[in-house]
Amino acid sequence: MRITDILEKECVRVPLAAEDKIGAITELVDLLHEQGRITDRNAVLSAVIAREKTRSTGIGHVRAVPHGKSAGCPALTMAVGVPTTPIDFSSVDGAPCRVVVLLASPADEMGPHIQALARVSRLWLTETFRADVAAATSADELYDAIVRHQG
Hints:
Blueprint: E1 12-16, H1 21-34, H2 41-54, E2 58-60, E3 63-64, E4 67-69, E5 77-83, E6 99-105, H3 111-123, H4 127-135, H5 139-149
Parallel strand pairs: 1-5, 3-6, 4-6
Antiparallel strand pairs: 2-3, 5-6
Helix pairs in contact: 1-2, 4-5
């Protein structure tokens, strides 16, 4: 699986208007809904927020990967955003998040969901990718960085 199999360029937003965790999650879910990637915005939003309440998705290297499974999501999909000001996601390394990667999948789809989470995590292990993401000043630049580094 390539990240661009589930991430469309139109589902990348730089900058996010949100200034907090719930706002960023909401903005990215709304973006997926606007692009027709999910059918029930409220169900997907509820699933992602419920998952976030069980354990923070701030996983270090200045990124958060909020995610959830819902019947309101017909297929695995992703949205990515860069907030103007880093957001506190209670990350494991204590650093505020500069990139938020939201992943949504159908309620009964476990394997691809886990595979996508792993793919995102592996991508962030590359220092040159993290530098390219940090340098991105537009959605196009961020999407192009993902395309170049996804392997």
